[in-house]
Design brief:
Helices cover 24% and strands 22% of the residues.
Length: 193
C-alpha cells in the first residue's frame, strides 16, 4: 500500500527511526481502524520484493517495520530473508489473526477483538500491545499476557479517539500493575505518518 521512512510512534521501538512497509489487505475489521483504506488489497499496486528492499536500504534506516493491513496474511519468508541479507532489522506488527511466516527480529502482537488470534503467535511475540477502547479491555489484555512467553514486553495504548477518556485509566492501571507500560501514538503528536 505504501512505504515510508519515519519515526516509530508506538510500543517498544517508539522514537526510533524506522522504514515502514505497509502491506494492503486486512479482514480483521476493527471498527476504530485508522487505516481502513488498507483493507482492500486489490486497491493497491503490486510491488516486487527487490523494489521494497532497495527502497528501504536506500533510506538510511536500520529497522524495517512490516505492517498493514494485516501483513501475516502473506508469506513473508522471501521479503524478510532479503531484508536480512542487506543487514536490515525486521520487525512486524500483527494482530496474530494468521500464522506468522518469515524471519523476524521483533514481533509486535496486537490482538484485536474482531478476529481471534492464531495460537501460534503467542510464543513468537516479543511485545504485546493492547489497544484500550473501553474499560473491559484491561481484563481482556490480561488474558493475552497469560499466553505470551515470559519476558514479553506489555503495552497498553489508548485508542486514538478515546485517548482523553482511557489514558487516565491506563495510567492508574500501569501504576497498580507495573509489568505493563503505557504506549502513546507519538507520531500523531509529531504530525508524521
Ligand atoms: S487489524 Fe489493523 S489494519 Fe486490520 S482492521 Fe484492525 S487496526 Fe485496521
Amino acid at each position: 500500500m505504501e512505504d515510508f521512512y519515519t519515526i516509530q510512534g508506538e510500543g517498544y521501538f517508539q522514537g526510533h527511526a524506522a522504514y515502514f512497509i505497509r502491506l494492503g489487505g486486512c479482514d480483521v475489521g476493527c471498527v476504530w481502524c485508522d487505516v481502513k483504506e488498507s483493507w482492500n488489497a486489490d486497491a493497491h499496486p503490486k510491488v516486487s520484493v527487490d523494489e521494497m528492499v532497495n527502497r528501504a536500504k536506500a533510506s538510511n534506516t536500520e529497522i524495517v517495520v512490516i505492517t498493514g493491513g494485516e501483513p501475516a496474511m502473506y508469506d513473508l519468508s522471501e521479503l524478510t530473508a532479503e531484508l536480512k541479507k542487506v543487514g536490515l532489522r525486521t520487525n512486524i506488527e500483527t494482530s496474530g489473526a494468521y500464522p506468522v511466516t518469515g524471519v523476524w527480529d521483533w514481533v509486535c502482537f496486537s490482538p484485536k477483538k474482531f478476529k481471534a488470534p492464531h495460537a501460534s503467535v503467542y510464543p513468537l511475540a516479543d511485545e504485546l500491545k493492547v489497544i484500550v477502547y473501553n474499560k473491559s479491555d484491561f481484563s481482556w489484555a490480561e488474558e493475552f499476557a497469560n499466553r505470551v512467553k515470559p519476558g514479553c514486553e506489555r503495552f497498553l495504548q489508548p485508542e486514538w479517539s478515546k485517548e482523553k477518556e482511557m489514558l487516565p485509566l491506563i495510567i492508574e492501571y500501569v501504576k497498580a500493575n507495573p509489568q505493563w507500560k503505557v504506549s502513546l501514538q507519538i507520531h500523531k503528536y509529531m504530525n508524521i505518518p
